[in-house]
Amino acid sequence: MDADLGELKRRIPLLEYLQRRHWTARAVGTQQEFVGLCPLHQETRPSFYVNARKNVFYCHGCGRGGDLIRFIELERQLSFRQSVAQLQHEWCSAPAAELLSQTAAFYQRQLSRHPEAVEYLRQRALCNSELFAELRIGYAPGGNLRSHLTSLGYPFALLLQTGLINHQGRDAFYRRVIFPCFKQGQIINLYGRSIGPAFPHRFLPRPRGGLFAWDLVARYPTLILVEGMFDLAVLWQCGFRNSTCAFSKQLNPVQFAQLCERLDRLVYIAFDQDQNQAGQRAACALARRLQTVGVAARIVQLPAGHDPNSYFSCGATSADFAALLEQARPL
Ligand SMILES: [Zn+2]
User: Fold this and answer.
1) Cα(55)–Cα(9) distance, rounded to whole angstroms?
2) Interval between CA 73 and ligand 1 midpoint (Å)
C-alpha cells in the first residue's frame, strides 16, 4: 500500500491536480513554491501555499496542510481510504480512456497530412480510406502530441503515466503508424508500427485486452486468426471480416478463452510462414490446444516467407487467399 501510494502521489503531483481543477497561483521565491486562494475555505487574500518540490500544501488561513491525499480528504470530506480510491478511479481509468481517444483522434488527423505514412500503408497493400476511418488508423509524426494534449488540459504527469510521452517530453510513437485497440468500443491501448529504422512494434505499457475487435468478430462461427494488425487490416480490406488478431504468436489466456467461447467454431490459423518455422510451430501448438477443448482448427499454409499482409502486398487476390483457406487441413 505504501509503495502504491508513493507511486500515485508521484504520478499525480499536487500542483497539477490543483491546476487541473482551475486553481490559480503565482510563484513565490525560487523554491518551486506557489500561493493562491485556499480551495478549502472562503478567503479574499491568498494564504494557500503549495510546495511543488515537496508535493505538499499549507494554508495560513485555516491552518491545514499535508499531501495530495490529505487535500482530497479535506476537499471532499472523505476518509483516507476513500480518497485514495477516488483518486485512482479518476486519474487512472476514466481520464486515461478519454486521453487515448483524444490521442487516437489527433493521430488520425495527422495521417492524411503525412505522405510518408500514406505511402508506407500503400506499400503494405493498404489503400482504402474507409477502412482507415473504420480502424481509426493514424500516424504519429512526433513533436506535436504533447502541446496538443496539454492545450486540452491534460497534465504532463498523466501523459507520462500512460506512456504517450517520454521523460524528455517526446512523443513515444514518433514516426509510427497507429492502430487503436478497442474493448467494447473504448480505446484501451495503441499499437504503433515504425515506418523507419526504429524498433518496429510498440504498445503503451497497459493491457492490450483480448483478440482484436472481439465485439465485432465473436459472432462469426468461422474465424481467421492472424499475428499482426497489418495482416488483419489487409484481410478486412479484402472482405474477410471474420479475421481477428492476437498481436503475437502466443495467445494470452483471455484470447484463448475467447476462441473457446463456442465449441462449434472453426478457427483458421494464418500465422507468418517464417524461415525459422516459429510461426508454424506456434500455429500447430495452438491448433492442438484448441482441438483438445473441442474447437476445430485448420492451419493456413502461406507461401514460404510470407505472412497474410506480404502475400497481398505481392499481388495475391481475395480468391487466392480463399483458395488457401479451402486447402487448409486439420492437423
Ligand atoms: Zn485555508
Assistant:
1) 8
2) 14
Give me 248's grid cell: 503475437
110 within 8 A of 138, measured Cβ to Cβ: yes
The whole-angstrom separation of Cα 210 and Cα 31 is 47
What are the tens digits of pLDDT across the range 204-241? 988 788 899 998 999 999 999 999 999 999 999 999 99
How far apart are the CA of 50 and the centre of ligand 1, in A?
Answer: 12
Which residues of the chain are under the pLDDT cut of 50? 1
Question: How much is the pTM?
Answer: 0.72
CA of 254 to the centre of ligand 1 (A): 49
Task: Give me the domains of the chain, ranges plus CATH numbers.
Answer: 2-91 (3.90.580.10), 94-203 (3.90.980.10), 214-327 (3.40.1360.10)
Q: How far is the CA of 39 from the centre of ligand 1 (A)?
A: 7
Residue 75 Cα to ligand 1 midpoint, Å, equals: 11
